[in-house]
Amino acid sequence: MSKWNLTRQTARIIRYLREPARAFSIDGTYETKESPYYSNPARVAVHNFRITSRFRAVSQILCVFFILLNSFSPSRAASNTYPLHVEEVAPGVFVHRGVTALMTAGNGGAIANVGFVVGNEAVAVIDTGGSVREGEALLAAVAAKTDLPVRYVINTHVHPDHLFGNAAFLRRNVAFVGHVRLKEAMEARFSHYLTANRAEMGALLDGVAPVPPTVPVSDRMEIDLGGRTLILNAWPVAHTDNDLTVFDPASGTLFAGDLVFLEHLPSLDGSLRGWQRALRELAAIPAVRVVPGHGPVSAPWPAALEPQRRYFDVLAEDLKAAIDSGVPISRAVTTAGQSEAGAWLLFDQFNRRNATAAYAELEWE
Questions:
Q1: pTM score
Q2: 47, containing H or E segment
Q3: Which fold has domain 86-304?
Q4: Integer Cα distance of 247 and 253 in angstroms
């Protein structure tokens, strides 16, 4: 039954309860009660008292019912979403810092930096977070800062902590923007990402769905937000094979996605040598600050690249030495990069897998 029909039927019931000397049929017609029972004033008084009490009880129940019905409607639920905390790192540039951790139910999957840029006519969101709930909270954060519509959702790469919130932006006339290879990567990995994270995240992954880019970027693209142009660059294989950066010349802010990590050890899912080349090219972007994929939401540019460049150099040198000495991969990955352990968070969670991927790449040089 629709909300409208339910309301009409409820109104008929209330009219019946307020007119006790009539019988009510569900089709809305009335029948006058003219039995001897109703000719006795005392009996009518008792009957009316019972009906009045019943009317009050039913009215209270109905009030609670309609309050709850309204509360659980999609529009009401969205409007009640608590906004994600964001920091304005430059005029019109807002960023939420993710926690430095793996995705869990405790942190809601909110481990990546996500943000948005506000122009004179529209807003662009850069990454949507690790759950639909985080995406909704990011959307609420936009609404708390501006009345302008979100026209673009830009995904910097395929990893789930950056795009599991995409579904929160569906049905909003939004263009989803990503690397030309992002769609293929999502088709290959999305199901695995959901399965792999379900044990830790549980019901927080409900509603998560693949939302591939409707606007693919193969090289360079500009997006106009009204008096503010964002420059998007698609990169060769580095952190992944589908990395995309977003540069805002108006503020000198570079959203680097996971091409740049701060404090959190970089996670290699592409090519070590390709990532080292990308760092050299990234340094040429005339930014004044960077928003990394993980870590502090704003850092001086290009100085922010130095810790990551050092780690990659150490990892590559250690592995090349092991390969040249005939050390097998099983032993090499236990020692490579260990001198960097004290400089990074989550070192133990990621260094060995980085070394494993890099060894396989470097042994063919």
A1: 0.80
A2: helix 41-71
A3: Metallo-beta-lactamase; Chain A (3.60.15)
A4: 6
